[in-house]
Structures are given as structure tokens and as C-alpha cells.
Amino acid sequence: MRTWLHPAVFALTGLAVWFGSHATAVAQPTQTTVRVESSLALTVEIFCSETKLRTTDARIRWGIPRTMLDASSAAGFAAANPRLEVTVYKNGFDKGLLVALPLSAASSNPPAVPQAANAQTRPQLRAFQIRVIEVEQPRTAQALEAGSQMGVVVENLEPGINYTFRIAMDTPAGRIASPPATKQAQVCPADFVLPRPVPGRKR
Amino acid sequence: MTRLRCALLALTCCLLADAAFAQLSVVATDINPDRSANPDADAATGGRVNHLGVDRSNPARIYAASEWGGLFRSTDNGVTWSHVEGHVPTVTWDVKVDPTNSNRVYATSFYDGRTNSRSGINVSTDGGVTWTHPATATPPAGFCATDTPRRSEAAAFGIAIDPANANHVFIGTNCGLAISLDAGATWTFRDPAGTGGDNIWAVVVHHGGIIDLCGDNGHLRSTNGGTTWTTAATPLPSGTCSITASPDESYVLFAVVGFSIFESDDGGQTWPGTYANPSPQGRIPFVATNKRSGSNYDLWFGDIGLHRGTCTTPSPAAPGGTQRCNASTGWAGTCIPGVGCALTRIAGGHDDTGDIAFAPGVAANACPLFYSSDGGVFRNTSTASPACHTPTWTQPTITPHGLWNFSFSGVSQPGAVTEHLYHGNQDNGTFGALNGGGTPVTWNNQNCCDGFDTAGDGTRALTTVCCFASVPPAPPVRLTRLYITAPGLTGASPQINTYPPGNMRMAE
After folding, report:
1. Full pLDDT tens readout for chain A, 203 residues
2. In 3D, which of B155, B158, B424, B430 has the Cα closest to residue B284?
3. How far apart are CA B220 and CA B224, in angstroms?
4. Does B474 contact chain A (CB < 8 Å)?
5. Nearest C-alpha of chain A: how many angstroms from B475?
6. Which residues between 92 and 121 in chain B have a beta carbon less than 8 angstroms from any beta carbon of chain A?
């Protein structure tokens, strides 16, 4: 590959290989053991959409330390299955109450639901009707090597809900994830001017 | 004149100026507008009011907790309002009156940035004249997971008084649940979820002391005064919330989290029921129930608009079964794009709800008396059931003076009275006056909604209003509008621009 995406693929692959030997096997979501990689700390910014009224978005960014940039094989990328995991429940990751959004590309589709999810996860919950609309990746190999951040923009958060995000991926030795980051979705109000006074109203 | 004499003269002048300054006094006079003459109900003067508290022993007395202006009180059924000077914190959330003692009032507030802040829980025992901030109303050291900011920047939210015992008071805080068993004199804190004292936004106490609350840990219930707590395997989502109970069935609960409405028919063990939000926005949505005749009751819901659903208790009453209300299919209070919502803006009350208060001490069919929103407090002019349950709202003669000023400007004119004054406000619009030095100042409320900036030059005035123009059937478009008018915002106000151009970009 000679596209600008190539360095990012190697970065993610390197990440998967670097931690592969330290993770434990993955079981059902409620029994999943996840190794937390503290250097993958997320930053979360909540903001109002500039194109859609009353729509709350989130930009989640994370950096890949330079020590993880020694990639070995692009084949590891597909197996790593990098995704943004989201929960709106306190300790929701531990309880398996989460949804997962693939990070491969922006999508207008609802988020993917873990196969082991049951009805209690409530994938139809309004708070989970979010989607990735933008994937931010370094544009040049030089920028990636400098340790610049990667990120995603998620659309349609429910105002007032506390969202907890983490980046997760599967390695041959188990699942790894960033530390969780929690932010409350803000309200994006949309007052409007009446085109004309409502007839008959008295004050 | 010799140098010595010059120096003595300069010194004398300084001393005289110093003495004059020491005698200088400043008198600040409240010149807030009292009410709006604009026919649009979203043009108002009350500012954002979050919650209300009606005195059950004397229903003519009501308290209002405003978002930025502190507490307000009316003693004449909401016709006129005055500021409660003795309550220091200004970022208030809730206020409730002891149903057995008019003099005892509880109020909650967010942290206000003061050193030695009294934010959080305050109690009055003289009808709001003076207030105490009990030492035990601050969580003990080490109680909160993130101890320092939650204790030093205390915040408190929803208030619940046990109907069965008015000495028992429960308040949600930013560090767990505060409980008083002696009418607010002393407080203890509980961490219901065992997670280190998280936000608890709302509490309801009902049916002989059952406590249901919601917040960062979803919903939790206690049936033993807060000693132990239960929650669902899949709890409610984490976030700002409101919760209430059926008046008939202690195990039927309604909650709104974010702007999603949920129902539980088994005491919170599961939350399978949901209702469509007819006017989603999410500023501070609330739910409330109001007993009607026989097995019926109303479920009130507020977000942008105010809505009422009809609910029925099954016979025989038992946990489980179908959802109790027809709300998803039959909410009263339809919202019409470009016009407003039937039970708020169209009915004379500002959109963007805060709270609703019913006639206290009425066993069934209690009329909604007052409603609070981003425009202040509004009174129901329909006072008899059943008509009153489809309210018609009117603003007070003197509204709470709780405006959130975005801008204030003026133009000096000859004379002490004829000064031109202008101000713009969050939610309530723009105001202008030609007699800024008069008593009273006569304000003209030109526009509704978010008035960001105002300026004048003696011959004309400019105002910017950030409203989202909606011209059906086209989807709403976001515009910031610039208007030019005669001085004092009188007469016609043609729009001369949208600012900045292309304020909202089109999706690519």
C-alpha cells in the first residue's frame, strides 16, 4: 500500500502485536477480561453539530506512543478489530452493557452490537443510536511518526447522558483497551423566532 | 507661589478629595423589566426558573429557584414576585416547603465560585427571611471519591420530603444522598451505589417512606430509610434525570434520563416501558404524576413543551403488566414546528420547561397552578377541574427578575431621565428603553429568544438575536439575525443581515 493510510495501519498493527502477549482470553461480555493500556489515554470533546440542529457530537482522540510504531505485519490489523466501545451505564464495560463502533470507516448505520449481547444491553436505547461520522487519521507518515493523535467523531449523542468511551481491540492473546473516559453530552438548544405572532394570544 | 505653598495646596486638595470619596455612597436600584408586552410567549422577563415549591399550608405562597438569580418568592398566588435576599447562593436548583410548617423551607444550589461558599443545601426556619447552611450538610472528609472538588464545590439537586413524616428530608447531591431526620437541622450522607458518592439528581419518597432516586448510577430504591439499596441488573442510563411514582401503585415508577422516558412496573427491577418524547431537546426534562378520578392519573412530561398523558391503574393492581399510560400515542400538548407547543408557547407560557406545581392537599384532580420554564414562572388562568388540566398560562404582573444578561449598553442623553438603555438576554430576548433614568424604566421587549448584543447611537439601535428561523415545511435553519430599529427598540425592526453569513454550514 502506498496510500496515506498505510502508516496508520502499521501503527494499529504494531499496537496489537506489542500487547498481544500480555492480554488474556476473551469470554462473554460479562466475563471479559480486558487489559488496560494507560498510554492510550483518550481525550473527549463534546460539541454541538455545525450542520444539524439539536445534535450533540463527540470527538474522541488518542495518541499512539512512538514505542508502539514498530509494526510487523499488516495482516494483524484485520484481526485486531479496532473499535470504539461506548457505554451509558455506570461500570457498563464491566457489566457488558456496551455497544461497539468499528473504526474502519465512517458510517451512517447504527452501531454494531457485540454478538454476545442480550436484550439487557438495550441496543435500541436512544442513547446508543450514535454513529461514527468521521475518522481522523494522520495524513502523512511523518505526522504519524511524530506521535500525532488519531480520532473519531461520533454523532447524535443524547443530551444529559454520561457517555463512557474506550478504544478496544482483540489480539491473539486477548483484548486490550484504553482507560475509559467519561463525559456528559451537552444540550444543543435551538430556540426559534416565530415567523409571525400567533393570533389571539394575550399577555 | 512658592514651592512650599504649591505643595500645601496639592496636599489640601488630596485630603479634601479623600474625604469626599469617603462620603460617596452608591445606591443600586433594580430596574429589571417586570413583564413583557410582546405577544410571543417566548419573549419574557422572568429568566430561567428551574423548580418550584408551593406552601401547602398557604398555597398563595410559592418559591421559585432560578438558574442564575437565586430564589424568588410570591405571597399572592404568583401575581408578583420578589427576590429572597437572605438566600446567598444564586445558582439555585430546587426549593421545597415543609408541608406541615410554612416557615421551614429547603433550597439547593450549584457551586457559585465563592470562597467559603454556602452552595449545596440551605434551610430556612422563618419563611425564607434567613437561611442556614448546616455544617453537616457538607459530606464528611473522605466520603466522596473525588473528594476535594465535590466537597469544596458542593452542589445539591432534587429535594424530597417524606409525605408520611415531614421531618424526613432527602436531597440528591454531587456526592451521594443527604438525609435529615430532624427537619434539616442535621444531615448524614449515603452512598447508595457504593461508588464513592456520585451525582444523585432526583429523589422521590412515597407510599410510606419508599425512596427512589436516579443519577449517575441509574435508579436505586430503598425501603428501609436508606440503609440498603437495590437496583436493576440493567439499570437506567447514567445522567441527569427526573423520577416520580404512580399515586396508586408503589412499584410503578416513571423516569426521564437524558430525554428518554422510562417506566418500571416492578419497583425498578426492570425498566421495559418507554414513551416517545414529543419535544426532545434535553435541557432539564421532568416527569410528574397527578391523581385524577377513580383509577386514573396523569403523567406530565416537560422538555421543550409541556405534555400530559393519561394513565390507568389496572384492577386488580399488581406489579408487571402493560404500561400504565397512553402517552406515546396520546400526549396532550402537541408541538407544531414554526408555531410552538400547545401547552406552553401557544398557551401563553415560554417553552423549555422546568417544573410544574399542582394545588397542594387535593386528593384528586388537583389543578396545575404554576409552571416554570426559561421565561420565568407562569400562572394557570384556568382554575377549575377538568378545564384546568389543559392550562392557559399568563405571566405575572411582576415576574421574577432572573434574567441572564448577555449584553447591556446605553446612550447618554440630555437630562437625567431620558437615557437610552439596551440589554440582551438568554432565552428572553432583547429590551430597549428611552427613559433609563426614570422610575420605573419602561422597557420594550422587541424579540424573543437569545438576544446576544445590543448597541445604540441616539438615533437608532442594533440588536443581534441568535434564533433558529423555522419556515415550514422547510427544515429549521440556524441563523443569527441582525436588526435595526428606532431608539429604545421601538417601532419596526427590519432585519438587515444574518450574522455571520453562513452561520451553519451545509452538510457535505
Report:
1. 333 334 444 444 444 333 332 222 222 244 457 888 887 889 999 999 887 888 999 999 998 765 554 444 444 544 577 899 999 999 999 999 999 998 865 554 445 433 333 334 455 899 999 999 998 876 555 555 555 678 999 999 999 999 999 999 887 778 889 999 999 999 988 777 666 444 444 45
2. B158
3. 13
4. no
5. 9
6. none
